[in-house]
């Protein structure tokens, strides 16, 4: 694919479709939504309103980091605090698909519908990529940013039309477009992070305390593995518990899985062969977190596993 041409075509198409109307989009800080933001800003300028919705499920320091990185690029991003709404919607929800649904509903029906009303936007831009569509259609996993494929009519249900300028690209293509759009290297190379954010990294109910734990574990894993150039790496908090011994006392503690994979586009993946001392160091740091007494490294390829656990 000629990515320069892709940018030209998508820019022209966005201009033609949106016309004099307003379009809005949510920036998550991931490469897909970053590229959509930069592309649409190029096409629409001030007629694009970009929001960063803090759903309380973000990684350490993420909301401010992302907003200020875009400010430096001359793209204004408004930070919206919706933490209470999302955590409220996730209360008591255990089933993975129900969790995704609660997040989707809160995002589109509550928070976004409100922003659409406030901005008068008629278009919502999405960072949907080809892999998202394929996996949703195949029924493997509901991706939070797919509506049409789920039989939801956003125009009828929420009052806006969804535009998906990246839907013909895979992750590697999105990265190429990111480079051509002049996005900074660390943004281009950012490892994928799921739309449901840390809610996808907690096997059970998403609560404040589980979030604190998985956020801390995620920070450790990302810090330790940043230099590996692996496709993706993260920490996952299980609901199972394991017996341990701390300060000469029995402890029925938490289990955290570390996953680090090699992949081109997330369709297939293999576990990264990390050096043993690196694994030991990560394990030492993870089990120093309060209540955690097991740290496991996941060797499973995709398939049969998926990248995420829920
Ligand atoms: P799976 O778990 O399906 O993940 O093998 C493939 C890639 O997609 C990311 N992922 C998601 N991204 N919303 C997203 O935006 C989601 O619900 C979601 N689930 C998984 C995952 O991190 C991996 O890179």
Provide the descriptors you would attach to this structure in a database record.
310 residues; alpha/beta; Rossmann fold; GMP Synthetase, Chain A, domain 3; 2 domains; 4-stranded mixed β-sheet
SSE layout and pairing:
Elements: H1 3-18, E1 23-26, H2 31-44, E2 48-54, H3 62-72, E3 77-81, H4 83-90, H5 96-119, E4 123-125, H6 130-137, H7 154-158, E5 161-163, H8 171-180, H9 185-188, H10 208-225, E6 232-246, E7 249-262, E8 270-271, H11 276-286, E9 292-297
Parallel strand pairs: 1-2, 1-4, 2-3, 4-5, 7-9
Antiparallel strand pairs: 6-7, 7-8
Helix pairs in contact: 1-2, 1-8, 2-8, 4-5, 10-11
Bound molecules: xanthosine-5'-monophosphate.
Structural notes for this entry:
By secondary structure, the chain is an alpha/beta fold. It has 2 domains: 3-188, Rossmann fold, CATH 3.40.50; 202-297, GMP Synthetase, Chain A, domain 3 (2-Layer Sandwich), CATH 3.30.300.10. Helix content is 42%, strand content 19%. The strands form 2 sheets. A 5-stranded parallel sheet has the order 3-2-1-4-5, with helices on both faces. Strands 6, 7, 8 and 9 form a 4-stranded mixed sheet that branches. α1 (3-18) packs across α2, α1 packs across α8 (171-180) and α10 (208-225) runs antiparallel to α11. The radius of gyration is 20 Å and the shape is globular. Residues 100, 135, 141, 143-145, 192, 194-196, 200, 232, 266, 302, 306-308 line the site of xanthosine-5'-monophosphate.
